[in-house]
Structure formats: structure tokens, C-alpha cells
Amino acid sequence: MVCEKSTFAFPKPWQPDVQATLIVDGEQIALPPENQYVTRFDCFSKCIIDSTPPEYGVEDAIRRMRVIDAVLHSMATGVPQPVGSRPSRQP
Which is it for strands 20-24 and 27-31: parallel, antiparallel or unpaired? Predict the structure, then answer.
């Protein structure tokens, strides 16, 4: 992904139990092995047991979807799309 001030890539974001790599401006950053599904389930279970809100709520999900929408729109049109703006939908 090319951003305003830098670029980053996450070649294989869902690799349970395998070390992943994040690339920021060409620099590779090794991430520790982790099963993301187990981690999310553990967090969800803890919220239920402790009656606490989740670490990431609805607003975070909305922000993430705006990023995904912007990426998809940019890929479809070849034009950079600001995150947070709403791409026009084609019928």
C-alpha cells in the first residue's frame, strides 16, 4: 500500500503459527509467530468472562472498512483514494 508519506506491505497477513513479515518503506520487520484466530477468540472470551468491552469496537471496524473500500476503489480505478472518503458506487 502506498500512503502519503510511506509505503507498506504485509505479504501474508493471516499465517497462523508462522512468522510473518511486515515491510515498511522497504525495511522488513519480522513479526512473532501467532495464531490470530486463537488470539481473537481469547480476547473475546475474556470480554465475556470479565464483562469488559472488546479491545476493538464498532468504530474501529468502520475505520477498517473505509480503508478496505479506499484500497478496492484505488485498485479498480488506478487512482489514489483518500482513506475516509467514500468512493462513488457504480450501478
Answer: antiparallel
